[in-house]
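tokens incoming
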């Protein structure tokens, strides 16, 4: 594997995105994105094992490409962005398992902190056209939104439910090495 030269990295927000999706009517997925995020990674290894990851997501930056739905998601029924303007993740452990990384840590949403794990794929490193060293990752996990005090829902008919409790999170992150 190509050397990363170890050290400190920051998330390149222009080339990174975090997507969330949940089933609507338990049939199809509603997908949204957080457009503003920042974070850092400190590593001592070429493959990012045992690194430390800090991530901050700005809740007001969410979009589902439907303004009415977005305003509802920003309301106290969901993210309550006025009271809780950020989502935080701080890793506690990063390990290699069968060629993949398992990133465990504390996720805080709406003031509730829970331990979660992401399955992470290290996509490699490369120099961009401007001479910056970049690293790429994809991370994913599924969580129960009720664990984070996001419990709003609508029930209808005898079997109908508007939203699934399970939410899938997918992050495509590009890091830039600090000199």
């Amino acid at each position: 594997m190509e050397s990363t030269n170890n050290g400190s990295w920051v998330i390149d927000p222009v080339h990174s995105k975090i997507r969330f999706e949940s089933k609507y009517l338990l049939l199809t997925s509603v997908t949204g994105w957080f457009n503003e995020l920042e974070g850092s990674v400190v590593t001592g290894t070429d493959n990012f094992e045992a690194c430390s990851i800090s991530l901050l997501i700005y809740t007001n930056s969410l979009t589902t490409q439907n303004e009415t739905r977005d305003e509802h998601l920003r309301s106290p029924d969901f993210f309550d962005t006025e009271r809780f303007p950020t989502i935080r993740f701080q890793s506690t452990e990063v390990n290699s398992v069968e060629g993949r990384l398992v990133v465990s840590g504390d996720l805080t949403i709406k003031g509730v902190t829970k331990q979660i794990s992401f399955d992470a794929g290290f996509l490699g490193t490369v120099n961009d056209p401007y001479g910056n060293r970049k690293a790429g990752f994809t991370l994913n996990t599924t969580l129960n939104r009720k664990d984070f005090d996001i419990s709003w829902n609508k029930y209808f008919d005898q079997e109908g439910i508007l939203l699934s409790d399970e939410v899938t999170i997918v992050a495509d992150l590009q890091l830039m090495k600090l000199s």
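note: The mean pLDDT is 92.
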